[in-house]
Write a structure and sequence with these properties.
heterodimer; A: alpha+beta; three-stranded mixed sheet; B: six-stranded mixed barrel; 23 helices; globular
Chain lengths: 251, 997
């Protein structure tokens, strides 16, 4: 038991997962995310009354409210003044191809759908033991104290397959909402998909690859469009610098 | 180790694809968002609940809406929590006899009684002295109606919140290029290669801006942000150039210096489309000094001024003689001089306006600007070169043919791929008007005005320079039971149009359009309470505030203003005798009201986003939209505009009354359909004509609301391609704008590089004119600031402050997820921005002995605040900042007493004074505002930091006592609820009770 409650260490790599024919995922473009939180509340609005809802809010009008959000935006500063970067970093379940949250679940509530690779929690089976949250190296799970169950991003599974919705609406709420178009959605196993192309062409990367979880979600790095002639080198940190900083911050 | 994907998990008990209520009846209704000034199209998804009622299930962006094209923001997506907010007022309230203002002690009354009280009081005021009624509204989107109400009532004391928002941006650009940013125009990021954003500008038109910014970056465009702070959009800038607050004007002048020195300017554009070649009289003294010389032939018209510009002169280098600027100067083969000094036949010495600009910027070198802005001179030179070279060396021709105002056909449209954007960051300084003028001139010398890739107008802009809207200005026309002969707000073109009495004193309670702030096109709401309490220039009786939180975050000097609202004469009567507050929520101001009118939310009402008001047009054509109710009103809530139409009818205001004296409009929707501002022009331009087949102009259509509702609540009329650019001089567009009723004339709109309008005020101040003169003590203030060319001066507050003792600037930025106090009660937004910190550069904080996370005192000469400080490398060392309008008064908004917003959050407002010392006014004070426009100088305050003592409480200062919940407030399911599990259609008020399922 106690062993199962520790995060899965990188050295204890799980067995290779079967490669699914289809893996839906988000690709998030950090180059255009302005941190507006449209994705955060759109997600909440859709999901609280959806298949995974309600998303509990504790003390909503009290002293220090906390709430369940399947998607959160963190804001970081990187670099020293004046070479400062302000980075907005949206974070949700990464729908790992080899999700460490699944094998640790004693009831089978945590599972990965074979048809599209979405990682879900079946609330009716969940006993709220939180093993999955311990196992997730990304902190992407949201425990609902009031309901006593684990919750998380569903990639809006109750939207993306709903044939009653117009085709253009069969996307996660966060993707539809994003004003800057920073969120792409699609099948990362289809090399011709928009998301696969973006990962290829823009140097999309997965978070903490050393954990061998193979996150399906990817991030597109910041880029810097240089002036002609370029500004002083010390004023424009290279892309790698920010990326490296990210890895350090998250790792 | 178990397998993962292939592990046999069986079917989940809980079908993830279909929610538990998947079979419930659902319905989608379209309307328009009202969570901010953006006004996006939304789809409101409703689901039938357990009781059969329709409940809010989801709000998303309407993909068919041309403004937001399906996207939405954090606030818009949290609209459900606004609808069910515990802070909602649901009953009219009357302050209990004996209760003090601010105590929040009310008794509920019926609407009939509320309307009777108001009608009786207002009728009495109107029959005696109508100016004793003042109507000031906050961020409303119905100024065409509220302004009409005030004008019909007969009071000049009306304005919306523009005076404390961004009037400098509106006026500075409208007086220069005929349009402005935000609803009036914006950057053409679709075709720009370089985008320069200056100061905080995240609020207005935010979703379209974000859409364009994302596309711009993906296309490889370069984005430079100039801002003391790196937040918001600046986070994705390719380069951040920190600048000291209030110094942007110096930067623009240095860039102009560089561009002109390097001849990186669009000379043909300046010659043809601006007043740069027009000859200015140089001879000192006399009433023509600094004005444009004009053809004295009476057949050519009266002397040129801001409204009659068409007989001015220029020097033609091709023929070597002085010619009329129009139409002669525009004939083929002319080469109008931009430089040099000339003499008219009568010996008058003259020079082209551009020559004077050259001389003005000769000394505004990058080295000069470095000392002011803190930006290295080398960086300024490099930026100027990049801007100029991109605009002119990467210029392109768009294959769009058009004909100019003088009949010349152009086979293509010139593109200038440098776009700028700015808003409050420039505007909210007392030097903001001239700073914005400098930016507009910079944009003009590069030829970027309504050019592809540059700045583009939105209908009904561009306006004439100066717009043909004169503000009410005749004190003799304030008469009992008589409408004003002009709208309360407008654009003065000369001292003769000021709203002053024979002695030069203000005739408005806010001193707008007086010598203190002559071009205050949006009024000065921030001084209404102070002036009314002082009786300066007179006492008023009733102040009606709509959606303006003047007892908290919408006012400067908050604690003093709260006391003023409660100030009494020696006989015990209130100095502001009757205060009416209309709001949908229990804001801090509600507690001070004598009468509270509960407004509906945006989901429960009709509204018109009218071209007569703040337009939502896009670059390619005019657009307006409506809201329609998607839910019934909560409790007894009534939309404010219904209340206004009702009051106007009861008061028998002429526009609302038939010739026989009967009520003219049944209600607000009826008013919107049938009211005509001019024949065929109403609030809405779509589906006009009796059968709905006309647009822009046409007879009222009784089915107009229905047609809007059936078409996503929006009407968009894309213009033909040849009317989409160069609209200041575009023959087809100018004719169309006149025919549409947007302009009185179809004259071209020459850009005002040099402002003779400003010079006319300066001449009056110097006693060089026969007309109106300012009061003696204000002459120097007017003469100094009404410079016809842009210049930089330190914010006025700095002269009143020992800047060595208060070395730091303090400003706010606006969090995109919650930039307005309206949303502080929103349960889905509170956890995102539940309290604010003061952000300081680590070097600045450490020098003051303040650790990261430490509590500190922020002191200005006017007040002090205790708050928590966070170190941040994303702010320049001379500036500290915080998020705007997060801090709340304890107990307001139905948040628990001691909520984070109150205990840890704070307002910068406590540090900001609404007045500065001034020898030139009877009170010895003048609004802390731009001396030209009256724009509130929010961002001018100077502060110092010191650590809080270890023994002090770890809470923000000042704190105020919590007020009780007013009767009828929805708070019952808010304040004490520990767990909310919102699931549409289950439980009371659309929410689930405690305990889960």
């Amino acid at each position: 038991m106690s062993q199962a409650m520790s995060p899965v260490a990188p050295s204890a790599a799980p067995a290779r997962a079967e490669t699914l024919a289809r893996q839906l995922a988000l690709v998030i473009d950090l180059d255009v995310c302005v941190g507006c939180h449209a994705c955060v509340t759109s997600c909440k609005s859709w999901n609280t009354s959806g298949a995974a809802g309600p998303l509990t809010d504790t003390d909503p009008y009290g002293v220090s409210p906390t709430g369940t959000y399947f998607n959160r935006v963190q804001t970081w500063e990187a670099g020293r003044y004046p070479a400062t970067q302000t980075v907005h970093f949206p974070k949700s379940c990464l729908h790992c191809e080899d999700p460490p949250c699944v094998p640790v679940c004693p009831t089978g509530a945590s599972y990965k759908r074979a048809e599209d690779g979405i990682v879900l929690v079946d609330a009716d089976k969940c006993i709220g033991c939180k093993y999955c949250a311990w196992a997730c190296p990304y902190g992407a799970r949201e425990y609902d104290e009031a309901r006593g169950v684990m919750t998380k991003c569903t990639l809006c599974v109750d939207r993306v397959h709903d044939a009653r919705l117009p085709e253009a609406d069969r996307k996660p709420a966060c993707v539809k909402a994003c004003p800057t178009g920073a969120r792409l959605f699609g099948d990362v196993h289809d090399p011709a998909s928009e998301v696969s192309r973006a990962i290829r062409e823009r140097g999309g990367y997965a978070l903490m690859p050393e954990w061998d979880t193979k996150p399906a979600n990817h991030y597109l790095p910041k880029r810097v469009a240089a002036a002609e002639p370029p500004p002083r080198a010390d004023d424009a940190p290279a892309e790698g610098g920010i990326l490296g900083w990210f890895r350090r911050a998250l790792g | 180790m178990p397998e993962t994907a292939s592990r046999p998990v069986g079917r989940p008990l809980h079908d993830p694809i279909h929610g538990p209520d998947a079979a419930a009846r659902t319905e989608v209704r379209t309307t328009t968002c009202y969570m901010c000034a953006c006004r996006c199209g939304i789809r409101v998804h409703l689901r039938e609940g357990e009781g059969g009622e329709l409940a809010l299930r989801y709000i998303d962006g309407n993909p068919n809406h041309p403004l937001n094209r399906g996207v939405i923001c954090a606030k818009g997506a949290a609209g459900i929590m606004k609808q069910v907010s515990p802070a909602r007022l649901t009953r009219p309230l009357l302050r209990k006899p004996g209760a003090a203002r601010g105590d929040g002690d009310f008794e509920p009354i019926s609407w009939e009684r509320a309307l009777e009280i108001l009608t009786q009081r207002l009728a009495q005021i109107r029959a005696t002295d109508p100016k004793r009624f003042a109507l000031f509204t906050g961020r409303d989107q119905m100024q065409a109606l509220t302004g009409l109400f005030a004008r019909q009532f007969g009071t000049p004391n009306y304005a919306a919140h523009g005076g404390f928002c961004s009037v400098n941006m509106a006026a500075g650009m409208i007086y220069t290029v005929g349009g402005s940013f935000w609803e009036f125009g914006g950057p053409d990021l679709e075709r720009a290669k370089l985008f320069v954003m200056i100061g905080t500008a995240e609020d207005h038109h935010s979703n379209p801006m974000k859409i364009a910014l994302g596309d711009f970056k993906r296309r490889g465009g370069r984005f430079v942000s100039i801002n003391p702070i790196r937040t918001g959009y600046s986070a994705i800038a390719d380069e951040w150039i920190p600048i000291r607050p209030g110094t942007d004007g110096a930067l623009f002048l240095a860039i102009l210096h560089e561009l002109i020195a390097a001849d990186l300017i669009d000379r043909p554009f300046l010659q043809r489309y601006t007043n740069a070649p027009q000859l200015v009289v140089l001879d000192a003294g006399g009433e023509r000094e600094g004005l444009f010389a004009f053809d004295p032939d009476p057949a050519k018209g009266p002397p040129g001024d801001g409204r009659h510009p068409h007989n001015k002169l220029a020097f033609d280098r091709a023929s070597g003689r002085i010619v009329a600027a129009y139409p002669e100067g525009n004939e083929p083969g002319r080469d109008l001089a931009l430089e040099g000094h000339y003499e008219l036949a009568d010996g008058t010495r003259v020079a082209p306006a551009f020559q004077l600009l050259r001389e003005r910027v000769a000394t505004t070198t990058p080295a000069w600007a470095e000392a002011i802005t803190g930006i290295p001179a080398a960086r300024i030179r490099q930026l100027a070169r990049e801007i100029g070279e991109t605009a002119l060396h990467q210029a392109f021709e768009l294959p769009v043919a058009w004909t100019d105002a003088w009949g010349r056909e152009h086979p293509t449209t010139p593109g200038r791929p440098v776009a700028f954007h700015a808003m409050r960051g420039l505007a909210a300084h007392s030097n903001g008007f001239q700073t914005v003028r400098a930016l507009a001139v910079l944009m003009s010398v590069l030829g970027t005005i309504d050019a592809p890739g540059g700045f583009r107008h939105k209908a009904p802009y561009p306006r004439h320079i100066v717009p043909n809207y004169r503000a009410f200005n005749d004190p003799a026309m304030i008469q009992p039971n008589t409408p004003l002969n002009a709208a309360p707000l407008g654009f003065p073109a000369s001292p003769e149009e000021l709203a002053v009495d024979a002695e030069g004193r203000p005739i408005r309670i806010d001193h707008a359009f007086s010598w203190e702030h002559p071009l205050s096109a949006h009024g000065l709401m921030h001084n209404v309470i102070t002036n009314a309490v002082r009786g300066d220039p007179y006492r008023i009786d009733t102040l009606l505030l709509f959606m303006a939180n003047m007892a908290w975050n919408s006012t400067m000097n908050t604690m003093a203003v709260r006391e003023m609202l409660n100030a009494r004469d020696t006989d015990g009567s209130y100095k502001i005798p009757f205060l009416v507050v209309c709001d949908a929520f229990q804001s801090e101001t509600v507690a001070y009201a004598d009468l509270v009118l509960p407004d509906t939310t945006y989901l429960e009402r009709h509204d018109a986003m009218s071209l007569l008001d703040r337009p939502i047009s896009e670059f390619d054509g005019p657009m307006d939209s409506v809201r329609v109710p998607v839910l019934p009103p909560t409790g007894e809530c009534r939309p404010f505009q219904e209340v206004l139409v009702e009051l106007a009818s009861r008061l028998k205001l002429p526009a609302f009354t038939t010739p026989e004296g009967a009520r003219k409009f049944k209600d607000y929707p009826d008013f919107i359909v049938r009211y005509e501002a001019q024949p065929g022009v109403g609030f809405l331009m779509g589906w006009r004509g009796e059968d709905g087949t006309q647009s822009i102009r046409g007879a009222p259509n009784p089915r107009q609301w229905e047609m809007y509702a059936n078409n996503d609540c929006v009407f968009h009329q894309p213009l033909p391609e040849n009317q989409r650019f160069m609209r200041n001089w575009n023959r087809a567009y100018l004719d169309f704008a006149k025919a549409s009723g947007w302009r009185q004339r179809n004259d071209p709109i020459q850009l005002a590089i040099y402002s003779d309008t400003l010079q006319s005020f300066r001449l009056a101040a110097r006693g060089q004119t026969a007309g109106r003169q300012p009061p003696e003590a204000l002459r120097e203030r007017i003469a100094r600031h009404f410079d016809p060319l842009p210049f930089w001066y330190p914010p006025l507050e700095h002269a009143a402050v020992d800047t060595a003792a208060y070395p730091l600037a303090a400003v706010t930025q606006r969090p995109m997820a919650m930039y307005h106090a309206w949303d502080s009660q929103n349960a889905w937004l509170r956890p995102i921005h539940g309290h604010n910190h003061l952000f300081a550069n680590p070097a600045t904080a450490l020098a003051a002995g303040i650790a990261d996370g430490g509590w500190a005192w922020v002191e200005s000469p006017w007040g002090r605040v205790r708050c928590r400080v966070r170190h941040s490398d994303a702010v320049e060392p001379g500036t500290v900042w915080t998020w705007n309008a997060i801090g709340k008064a304890s107990g307001a908004w139905q948040l628990a007493p001691g909520a984070d917003e109150a205990r840890k959050g704070f307002l910068l407002n406590h540090l900001i004074t609404e007045e500065l010392p001034c020898d030139g006014t009877p009170s010895g004070r003048v609004s802390n505002s731009d001396p030209i426009t009256g724009q509130a100088g929010w961002y001018d305050v100077r502060v110092r930091l010191r650590p809080a003592d270890p023994g002090e409480p770890e809470e923000s200062f000042p704190q105020v006592a919590a007020v009780p919940a007013p009767p009828g407030v929805l708070g019952a399911w808010g304040g004490l609820r520990r767990v909310m599990q919102f699931f549409a259609g289950r439980g009371g008020a659309g929410a689930r009770g405690e305990g889960g399922r």
